[in-house]
Amino acid sequence: MYPSKLADGVEPTSESDNGEVLRKEDVDFELWNLLYHYLLDLEECRHNLSEALDHSTLEHLDLLLSFIRTAYASTTERLGPLLEKHQITYDLLWTLFKPNTLTYAKCFGTGQPRCVKYEFGEEKTANGGIKYFHVEARYLEFDGKVFGEMSSEHAIEKFRGAKQITALEVFPLKYHPSERQVRTHLTECGRKIPFHDGHRVVEIPIESRVVVDAAYFREENPNYARPSIKNSDKGSPAGWHVIDFDDAEEVSASGKNNGMDPSEYLVPVDGMTLLTRYISGPPGVGKSLTAELIAEHLRRPLMPVSAGELGTTAETVEKWLPRIFKRASRWKAVLLLDEADVLLEQRSSYDIYRNALVCVFLRTLEYYQGMMFLTTNRVEQIDDAIASRIHFKLKYDNLNLEQRTNGAAIYSRDDFDDWARKGRNGREIKNLVSTAQALAIQEGCQVTMSHLEVAIAASEDFECDFKGVGSKEAMNGYT
């Protein structure tokens, strides 16, 4: 279709065998799209070509550039505003993927990020009549012996309107908001390959009770390899299959119970409706401990979740909260949502983001079947709609003198009375006792009042610097 001299002149701009397009007699529409990808390269090539080159070659190249600009003028006009917003429409997907472009995707099975080189793309139709953009790419693979190039396939289902490029199943790496970090992370992963020495099972000793829910594990990890069970006609002994439990999660249940019957925890518990308990009070008075004791008394798992783990936007809360509710309901667990102020706070007319958080929490709460404890230090700011959904409300005051000295009869009562008058809360008392215990363990002896006095003295020095005059400067002396 084109003079061979023109093909020789522009072929160096292409990074792959696609440069052979100019040598074909018949060029289809898809290959014209390919030329559009290399429009900037062709323009740069034309700019760098010497005028001493054959006049006919330059003339044909100018005609080619003029044709591409004219034929794809509407495409360029539509594409510009979309790319400024980092968006794309389905019919313009092909413009994103230039051959040999590093493309960001997720690894099948693990969901971890990976980069592949885009090779080819076209629209296809699935068996159900659903259209999608089919992407073919290649990457380096290691089979345990040698490295080699492998192909991978990806699909972008047809969509309406404009869509964020980063929301696509696969997209050019240059559009990733953290491109540099992704490159660094994947490079570090690649450097670990030479040190890979086969599969290892990490043994993690656990003394507390755990929930064993194989069915739910499969549901949450559908791409996890399933163990095979082989039948033997000759009745030979079955072999062992090693299962990786890296993704299994421990669910704690406070305290120890010697002589318990394991079968007791495998019997399904009758379904229960939503039972929400609300605990308010100052720090260190036992709000979280109440939920732990209830879980132990009922012999049910305790699922502690802080509001910070759910995120700070309505989108992240809406993503994670239903999963947490589903897991807690399935396991008949006691759910502890600690420091839930951000989800419970009164809605207002000037903070739409907080309103969205509370609305998502309320909507999700309607579908939760189970027992949940909510703790907060700011009861006066709770939203009315949430307050009406709480079945039982508890308010804890600061510990009194008797509560702070309770259980301390192993030492001098006078010492503990003097200590209790300091007004410390339960968490501070626990921390002081833990410090004293650590000192005693280091010395290889029982905990004595002298250990407590050392812990108390250190704590009082810190509080004096933290709350007293010149506290900001004094705090610089702590690590």
* Widest sheet, order of strands: 5-4-3-2-7
Q: Please, how many domains?
A: 4
Q: Residue-averaged pLDDT, rounded? A: 73
> How would the global form be characterised?
elongated
Strand and helix order: HHHHHEEEEEEEHHEHEHEHHEHEHHHHH
Fourth-level CATH superfamily of the largest domain: P-loop containing nucleotide triphosphate hydrolases
By secondary-structure content and strand pairing, the structural class works out as alpha/beta
- CATH fold-level topology of the largest domain: Rossmann fold
Outline the biggest β-sheet. 5 strands, antiparallel
Low-confidence stretches: 12-29, 232-274, 407-412, 469-479
Number of strands: 12
Indicate the radius of gyration in whole angstroms: 33 Å
Number of helices: 17
Under the CATH scheme, which architecture of the largest domain would be assigned? 3-Layer(aba) Sandwich
Q: What is the distance, rounded to the nearest whole angstrom, between the alpha carbons of the first and last residues?
A: 75 Å
- How much of the sequence lies in strands comes to 15-25%
- CATH class placement of the largest domain: Alpha Beta
Explain how this protein is built.
- The chain is an alpha/beta fold and 479 residues long.
- It has four domains: 4-71, no CATH class; 84-194; 272-395, Rossmann fold, CATH 3.40.50.300; 401-475.
- Helix content is 38%, strand content 16%.
- The chain is built from 17 helices and twelve strands.
- A five-stranded antiparallel β-sheet has the order 5-4-3-2-7, with no helix packed on it. Strands 9-10-11-8-12 form a five-stranded parallel β-sheet, sandwiched between helices. A two-stranded antiparallel sheet has the order 1-6.
- The longest helix has 19 residues, at 449-467.
- The radius of gyration is 33 Å and the shape is elongated.
